Amino acid sequence: MTHRPFHRQSHPVERTQEGVMTLRRKGALTALLAAVAAFAVVAAGSASAAGKPIVIGWAFDSKGAMAPFDGPALAAAQIRVKQVNARGGVKGRPLSIVTCDTQGNKPAIAKACAVKLLGQKADIIFTTCDVDFAAPVVQEAISAGVLAVAPCIGTDQMGPKRFGAKGKLAFSFGNVAQDEGSAMAQYARARGWKTAALATDTVIVYFKDVVKAFKARFTQLGGKIVAEESYQSLGGSNAQNVVTRLNAKKADVIVTSTAGAFGALPQIIAGLRSLGNETPVLNSWAGDGTYWVTKDPKVTNYYFVTYASIFGDDPNKAVSALAKKVKAGTGGFVTGSAAVDGVVAAINRAGGSTNGAALAAQLEKFNKVPTLSGLVSFSPTLHSVFGRQYRVIKIQDNNAKVVGTVVAKVVPKI
């Protein structure tokens, strides 16, 4: 009985066509449902991928000589990450920072930190602010095909020059030493200083390269070098001998590149001033801050170039506000924020990819990319920043203030 309707004799052809159309409609509906289901699976997968955090693994020094630089940069980066995430992240993915303390950048501990962070699925590795100390971390990262970024390494060695072909994955948002020394030379000549005595701290490459670049650009601009001395901080014992020799030379300015945290800077400044020598001293960003100044004698006639002022008078009010939040000890703090800005820009330009080679290709194309620290440029040969504006700060009677700005017009070869 249930099949009887299909055997009616009226309009047999019409009924057959109607059945065929019904079957076709059922087939189309089935196909449509299958397509919708497949799309739902793909969409769910995309949503899952879109929500997956982009992990920045950060190997930083909390206790050693680089702590005054690493700590503020990390703090600024953490604030910047919160701001990025509040705006929806990067291509819908939040940023996340996981850290590992290198405890003074001991090579074995630094390497272990890199291995640990990579094991935690870090998409990008951030490292300390000196290329020698950073090398164990950088090598682990680039060997794994992961982009390695330093907030403030200042040499051209953060790239292929130091790490070979794999070094294409290594970048720094610090100013390259050649640019920094050049800016110092321009400022010196603009002040009318015609002669300079050089004091080179030989402990790390960055210190040496800044002074070399100053010499190259200063002489190019018509200045004259009247003395060249060298010393070694971090346990070196010849700083006082250098003071004696510098005091015997007449120069418009004494130029060095060294950090207060490395020990020799307060010895040199206090030594000169104790001898009654008030010759201006011009230092690089390494000599930023007042955490190292001596009370007797007070630091006077001392200048340095830096990324930002931590003294509440930076030309950019947003920079001053951030400095206050992170309780920055040096202007390098802003490079932590800049590194996040740069990585975000690279990921966006790479279509959301965090692949090391894809990000490196985008970073090499950076030409005056805006960051909180100023305009950032890289090139295939220079993986550290050039062409960014420096603040010039003077310390007089232990009080610091911005006295000018300068942008290097030439990156000299050294």
UniProtKB/TrEMBL annotation:
SUPFAM superfamilies with a match to the protein in the record: Periplasmic binding protein-like I
Residue stretches making up the Leucine-binding protein domain: 53-397
Domain of life: Bacteria
The entry's keywords: Signal
PANTHER family associated with the record: LEUCINE-SPECIFIC-BINDING PROTEIN, PERIPLASMIC BINDING PROTEIN OF ABC TRANSPORTER FOR NATURAL AMINO ACIDS
Family classification: Belongs to the leucine-binding protein family.
Protein name in the entry: Periplasmic binding protein
UniProt organism field: Gaiella occulta
